[in-house]
């Protein structure tokens, strides 16, 4: 099994968190693709993923090019019965899928839109472009009013996907506890995970350095 990655990418960091939580890092070969040097645009990589994105997971004849599909596949492949990340029934799977779709279709897309504008030089002050992201965090606050974690009362891969995105958003979007108390509470729980720093914060800090030359932090 091979994971093509660059930890500056939020979707990659979500997958790295899941790999750490499942304890299977020694079973997955990591192949670094340097996004800021255009590694994702090389002819060899485009043969693997014509979408020129990371992460990509290859396992035998299977190639997955979406981080959320990778997260589900990792659960189905490595999470034993009773593991907090296991998807043992249709109800659990539906709840986790629902929040993965929230990240993929809403929170991450709104973050990515602002990031594209920053790195293209279209904007240098993202504060005028935050309303869609803030609306997505408003929705996340409501979801977290219903359960301890984003999908249900147990940690799931949806939490990894969302915290990787939200921690990226938090580089330029303040997260006041008076507006989003449950989001901030949940975020603190995620930051306290023993593998959070190595699998998310390191890549986040790398991204922050790249952003420092583009916007005022």
TrEMBL record:
The keyword Transferase applies. Residues 89-215 form the GST C-terminal domain. Belongs to the GST superfamily. Theta family. Residues 1-82 form the GST N-terminal domain. It is an enzyme of class 2 (transferase). Its EC number is 2.5.1.18. Keywords: Transferase. This is glutathione transferase. It catalyses: RX + glutathione = an S-substituted glutathione + a halide anion + H(+). Homodimer. The keyword Transferase applies.
């Amino acid at each position: 099994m091979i994971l093509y990655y660059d930890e500056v990418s939020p979707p990659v960091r979500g997958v790295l968190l899941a790999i750490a939580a499942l304890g299977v890092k020694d079973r997955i070969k990591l192949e670094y693709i340097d996004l800021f040097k255009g590694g994702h645009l090389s002819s060899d990589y485009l043969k693997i993923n014509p979408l020129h994105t990371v992460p990509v997971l290859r396992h035998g004849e299977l190639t997955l090019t979406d981080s959320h599909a990778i997260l589900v596949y990792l659960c189905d492949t490595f999470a034993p019965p009773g593991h907090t990340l296991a998807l043992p029934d249709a109800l659990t799977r539906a709840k986790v899928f629902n929040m993965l779709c929230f990240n993929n279709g809403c929170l991450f897309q709104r973050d990515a839109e602002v990031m594209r504008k920053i790195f293209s030089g279209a904007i240098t002050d993202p504060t005028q472009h935050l309303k869609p992201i803030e609306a997505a965090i408003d929705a996340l606050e409501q979801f977290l009013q219903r359960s301890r974690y984003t999908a249900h009362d147990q940690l799931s891969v949806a939490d990894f996907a969302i915290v990787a995105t939200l921690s990226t958003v938090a580089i330029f979007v303040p997260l006041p506890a008076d507006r989003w108390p449950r989001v901030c509470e949940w975020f603190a729980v995620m930051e306290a995970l023993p593998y959070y720093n190595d699998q998310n914060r390191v890549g986040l800090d790398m991204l922050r350095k790249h952003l420092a030359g583009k916007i005022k932090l």
